[in-house]
Amino acid sequence: MTAVDLRYGDEVRRRMASLAGAGTLAPGPDVIVGQAGDRERGAEVILQLRVAVEQVTEARFLAFGCPHFLAAASWLTERLPGASREELLHWDWRDAAAVLAVPPAKFGRLLTLQDAVRAAAANWPGSGAGTV
Amino acid sequence: MSEVIYLDNAATTAVDPRVVEAMLECLGPGGDYANPSAVGHEPGRRARARVEQARAEVAGLVGADPAQVIFTSGATEADNLALLGAARFHRERGRHVVTSRTEHPAVLDACRQLEREGFDVTYLKPGPDGIVEPAQVEAALRADTLLVSLMHVNNEIGVVQDVGAVGRLCRARGVLFHVDAAQGAGKLPLDVERDCIDLLALTAHKVHGPKGVGALCVRREPRLGLVPLLHGGGQERGLRSGTLPTHQIVGLGAAFRIAAAEMAADGARIAGLRDRLWQGLAGIAGVALNGHPTRRAPGILSVAVDGVEGESLLYEMPQLAVTSGSACATTSGEPSYVLRALGRSDRLAQSSLRLSLGRFSTTAEVDFAVQVITSAVARLRSIAPLPPA
Hints:
heterodimer, B: Aspartate Aminotransferase, domain 1
């Protein structure tokens, strides 16, 4: 009999199985990057977003962190396509916390994810910052 | 192979079937289940005989006289009885205690209790290899030093301290010497006389005996006084009240008897498995051994895995029962204090794995573990940002 590790909910387990959205996008003028965190502090993420017609069309992540953090990054890459710059600027970590049943002790790691989303928004084409 | 490969024998071990058989003889109707203190009747005397046989088996493993052995609920209680009991009894002789930063919480927390009672405790910092040198102990001794406490084998990294050298040093200076031998007893030779150990804490469940039973060996010549922790029926010469659990004690004795008889063969085989495991893992880039390369107990291997996060690494390996950091502290989420005392960064301490082998570990299990760990590390690194140059 295999005992389920109750520290992780179904959505975390599902996402850790596939790690959907992990990887990188081919660099180009339409790809923006948001980076946040520090592996010395246990969580680091790089988001790459392809932008067209004022919307995110594609998202990928690279991440170092606990299963909740990796699952949240994966979940985020599926949520971001279709988002505008304004929506990125207002993305809130609590959405991921609720969906993934992240324990309060790890909320700080989701703030790292929020920082990465907002850093990407700051690099939105035409906002004055760069693309890759 | 079973569904999950058990590589957590430093946390606890499977009870040897020979031990189970001995214990069962003391449980059911017709068995030796009577109260060993009830020597007024035959069943009680039979139970007492089993307890005394176990006492001799425990003593035999560590070169002690059976009269030195006090049964306890495990090493934690034995450590507490040794430290608190000796310090409280001899407090007029001195209020200074020396120990190391990498001791088990059973010792460290007992030392903190002594601090609350007015004792001064020196916590020695081991070298990067986890070794506390006898010269460090010597330098820490003061005129008012009452007691030195040093573990035999570290539970997280498996390094072996030179307890004999420290024991002789303490004996020469008239300082009491306590050794937590929870991880070492039954795996490496120990002798309370040769090593000048005044108080030796032991447990059954690290050597394929049952949980819930251990012992404290207390020096008899000259007699070492202790203040008991428990009060009640006056069992164990008044040092540990409570009805003696015959089946547990018989299990402890059987486990130690088997360990003594098979120590050399088991040790060589398990050390071979540990070396095979290390050779397999050393092939992964960024993997480093924690602790001294050669002064190691046979069954414990601790490795730091750079470039992966510890919790995710464990998550990726549901086929393996291993631990990250200290087994006694893994629920805290804090990096291991032992690895930090060795100078490991928080990140490397957090991404360290302890793999511990036992009598029932096999070559196939070790090879499978290497495959699983290699694969898990590769998967996590493949999705991680490149580390800083």
